[in-house]
Structure formats: structure tokens, C-alpha cells
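User: Structure please.
Assistant: Input sequence and predicted structure:
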Amino acid sequence: MPDRPVRVAVYGTGRFAQATHLPNLSRIDDVEIAALCDINEEALREVAAQFGVARTYTDAHAMLEAEDPDALWSIVPAFARTDVEIAAAERGIQLFSEKPQALDMALAKRIDAAVRKGGVISTVGFRERYRPIFQEARRLLRDKRIVHVRFQQISHNPKPAAAARTAWSHQVEKGGVRFFDWGVHATDYTRFMTGQDVIKSQAFLYHPAEYHTPLSSSFHYQLSAGATATLTFIECDPAGPGEEPYFKIYFDGGRLAVFGYERIEVNDKVVYEADPFDPWLAQDQAFVEAVRSGNPGILQSDYHDGLRSLAPILAGWDSARREGALVDVERFIAEA
């Protein structure tokens, strides 16, 4: 790149962007936040004032045409994804796509095709790949024969009176479910730590009518080297998981457990304790440097690889709609 700041456009300026990407981009050297876009015009003005950005848009296509940025940070919810990322890739604009990438596999494939045809640098917001605790788990498992991966997330599901359904985050059809938002994360980190892809997906939901979103969601995977995996989301316990780990990975001869972002145990012995780390900042810094240097090799993933973390969840969602039918993930991708 010429000797000038990396010019960034940000599409989606809601609470998540305000808490993560916008502060990060503001503090990274030689980055100019050239423009912001959001459909909420009043909130957009407030965010622009907070981060000192002069140019704002409510139409992302108009922003891309007027600003010609080096990179686009697409941070809108999955249900709001249309063809903006495709338009960016066709213009040669490097693409940071926050996860989940899309509600629809066909759209994600169209974006992927545009990214590859345009030859642009891309990544998906699977930030935990940058966190040392997951990198250490990957290292520890490298020579192990994986048998089973268990992920669980235990939380509380407020009743409708406490959570208005008008919020998209409480609408199943808009992806406002924990298994979708966190499921793509858990799938990606399963892939990252084990080095295996998901080839079969099946899911069941328990969704009483009086709740906006399911009280439990159970996903069952077959991995590419023969191991099995389960992702379980339980939403009835306000106390959370207690001392249970997020991940417990069984291998031939033992087990490895990842307790939150704090420590790793192998066969109940602590083998790694994590220092404080900001994976959002690390990923944003890496993507800025990839754009600046033209070197995508410093990134932990790209958009095409991210399809292999999105597809098993969308395939499982399809399975749950069909009473737990087993779904071949490659066929699901191919037929989308």
C-alpha cells in the first residue's frame, strides 16, 4: 500500500461494534475510519460523534461507491446480510465479515464466490483462534487421536414478559438464538483445536411455546477423522455452568478440558493458565496488517474456511426442522 493510513468503512454500528471493533480501529496506528453506515440514523450520529467520524451513511452501497475504502468491516447481524459484501469484494475492497456470516447458505456461498473472484483478503470474526489458550489446546492435541468433543453452554432464558420479542435477538427466524450465534463459534474452535471438519450434522431443540427461544439445543456431529462431537446449549439455569468446562475433548488415553478462558487441564491436572488477552483487538490488528502488507498468511482463517464452521450449524438447524434428520454437510453446502 502507499504510505498512508488504511482507510476503513464500517457497516453496522450497534452495541457490539461500539464495544469491540470501533474502539480497536480507533487505537490501531495508521488506520482511518473513513465512514460509518447503519440504518438507525439517530444512533449513527451519536456513534460518529463518539468516534470522531465525519462521514455517515444509511445505505451501504452508497458508502462503498462514495468512499472507496481499502477494507470493509461488516458487523451487521446475519439476518441483515444481503449483497453488500459481494459489492465490496467486486470493488476489490478487503473484507472482514463478523460471524455468523449469513442465515442462508446460498448467500454465504455467493459472498465466498465474489471474494475468491475478486482476489480480496478476507476473514471471519472467529476471534478465539487468536487467543493463546485455544492455540495451546491445539498444540497439546496435535499428536492425539481425538475420540469425542463435548461443548456446553449453560445460561438463563428469560420469559417473554422480561424480553420483548420485538428485539431481533429474541426471534428464532432472525437467528436470535444462542445455538446460532455461539454454535458457529463452538464449531469453529472444535475444528481449530482438533484439525477436523464436520461431515455429518444432526440437531434437536426443546422449545416450549411460552418461550421466545429454545430451552435446550443439542447438536451432534461426525468429524472427518471419525470422532464425534456434541454442542449443547441449556437455557434454564441462571447460575451458569459452575466449574464445568466449556470444552472437554476426549482422546485415546485421556481428556483435555478448556475452562472458560482461564485454564487447560489434561486428565484433571492444570497444564496451562491463561493471562488476560483481548482476541478482538488481536484479530483487528492482524487484519489491518494483512491489508497493509497484502499478506493474508498472517490471518488465522479466511471467508472460504469460515463456510466450514457456518454450514454444520445451518445444516443442524435444518435437521431440527425435520425431526432430527441426519444431514451430510458437504451435500448441504453443494445443494444450497
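The chain has eleven helices and 15 strands.
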